[in-house]
Amino acid sequence: MLNVTDLIIGFFISFVSTLFLVYPIKKLAIKLKVMDIPDYRKIHITPTPRLGGLAIFLGTCLGLVYLAPSHEHFLEISIGALIIVITGILDDKYQIRPIIKLSGQLLAAGILVYGGLIIDKVNLPLIGLVELQNFSIIITILWVVGIANAINLIDGLDGLASGVSTIALTSILIIAITDFSLIVIFFCVVLIGSNLGFLFHNFHPAKIYMGDTGSMFLGYSIAVISMLGLFKNVTLFSFLIPIIVLAVPIFDTLFSMLRRFINKQKIMMPDKKHIHYQLLAAGFSHRNTVIILYGFSAVFGALAILFSNASIGLTLLIAIVILILLHLLAEMVGVVGKGGRPILKYSKKIYKMVRGIK
């Protein structure tokens, strides 16, 4: 049974725990020299402690201990999360090879599959419910690993990954409340609490970074939550809902890979052409760039909520809006147009005009 008081208490346990756990974890990161050192790809200019994601993880755990959710796959989810966090800690400390990091992600996804938590069916328009059968394992692993890496890749500015994740989780929470999905509600509430507690330290100028420990844990958690809730939704186009919720990190990743392919660059080669770098290059401040991407995420989240229970007519209208927004994102990261600069420079001019009027 859903007890609102318990949810509020669980939220505050996660929020307060994460808020205060950051202090000892920051000292630990400095002592162990788990620091983010500035280089040509980094925005910050001073070494900054990492491992902040450990506070998010521990705060989430404490909130869940209080709420004590019950689910048949809770053990597999917990083991997978622990594997992800350990992999993240090792990467934050030792900068492990990508193949080792990927192995940790695959192991976590494999634990879920072995335990039976898979994306086993999707609801397609004009066709109806389609059983994925043997493809379910591949799709599940790709989803978990893909979202873990998408959140990881967008973690390039102070407060960006934490804020975008919070917006996505809030959207999922609203959908879960309408569907009365208790396990999803519990997970969303504690993760939102932990994220907000961490964001107090991480918003620009950040005093600590979540590192791969946090970004991969958040990506893994959102992927799992969407499997428990959004993919189980039986409404038309339900398979698109989690993609819309996470449109900013997903399509920033896909567009970056496409851009590198078009430019005959290595697909996995890191660069400074992600959407947040393009906004900075166009002249937006660090803080305003993050707020703009929060806005994009919030719009996509709201569209996903509408999409989850929309009629055919409204679905088509929402689809058109989504396509327009995706085109803007594609311009920003340089897949279409001239590196996204025309639209960004135009946006900057409008921004300056509005500020001048004020």
From TrEMBL:
<feature type="transmembrane region" description="Helical">
    <location>
        <begin position="213"/>
        <end position="231"/>
    </location>
</feature>
<protein>
    <submittedName>
        <fullName>Undecaprenyl-phosphate alpha-N-acetylglucosaminyl 1-phosphate transferase</fullName>
    </submittedName>
</protein>
<feature type="transmembrane region" description="Helical">
    <location>
        <begin position="102"/>
        <end position="119"/>
    </location>
</feature>
<feature type="transmembrane region" description="Helical">
    <location>
        <begin position="74"/>
        <end position="90"/>
    </location>
</feature>
<keyword id="KW-1133">Transmembrane helix</keyword>
<keyword id="KW-0479">Metal-binding</keyword>
<dbReference type="GO" id="GO:0009103">
    <property type="term" value="P:lipopolysaccharide biosynthetic process"/>
</dbReference>
<dbReference type="GO" id="GO:0005886">
    <property type="term" value="C:plasma membrane"/>
</dbReference>
<keyword id="KW-0812">Transmembrane</keyword>
<feature type="transmembrane region" description="Helical">
    <location>
        <begin position="183"/>
        <end position="201"/>
    </location>
</feature>
<feature type="transmembrane region" description="Helical">
    <location>
        <begin position="51"/>
        <end position="68"/>
    </location>
</feature>
<keyword id="KW-1003">Cell membrane</keyword>
<dbReference type="GO" id="GO:0071555">
    <property type="term" value="P:cell wall organization"/>
</dbReference>
<feature type="transmembrane region" description="Helical">
    <location>
        <begin position="6"/>
        <end position="25"/>
    </location>
</feature>
<keyword id="KW-0460">Magnesium</keyword>
<feature type="binding site">
    <location>
        <position position="212"/>
    </location>
    <ligand>
        <name>Mg(2+)</name>
    </ligand>
</feature>
<dbReference type="GO" id="GO:0016780">
    <property type="term" value="F:phosphotransferase activity, for other substituted phosphate groups"/>
</dbReference>
<feature type="transmembrane region" description="Helical">
    <location>
        <begin position="125"/>
        <end position="145"/>
    </location>
</feature>
<feature type="binding site">
    <location>
        <position position="152"/>
    </location>
    <ligand>
        <name>Mg(2+)</name>
    </ligand>
</feature>
<keyword id="KW-0472">Membrane</keyword>
<dbReference type="InterPro" id="IPR000715">
    <property type="entry name" value="Glycosyl_transferase_4"/>
</dbReference>
<dbReference type="GO" id="GO:0044038">
    <property type="term" value="P:cell wall macromolecule biosynthetic process"/>
</dbReference>
<feature type="transmembrane region" description="Helical">
    <location>
        <begin position="312"/>
        <end position="336"/>
    </location>
</feature>
<feature type="transmembrane region" description="Helical">
    <location>
        <begin position="237"/>
        <end position="258"/>
    </location>
</feature>
<feature type="transmembrane region" description="Helical">
    <location>
        <begin position="279"/>
        <end position="306"/>
    </location>
</feature>
<dbReference type="InterPro" id="IPR018480">
    <property type="entry name" value="PNAcMuramoyl-5peptid_Trfase_CS"/>
</dbReference>
<dbReference type="Pfam" id="PF00953">
    <property type="entry name" value="Glycos_transf_4"/>
</dbReference>
<dbReference type="GO" id="GO:0046872">
    <property type="term" value="F:metal ion binding"/>
</dbReference>
<feature type="transmembrane region" description="Helical">
    <location>
        <begin position="157"/>
        <end position="177"/>
    </location>
</feature>
<keyword id="KW-0808">Transferase</keyword>
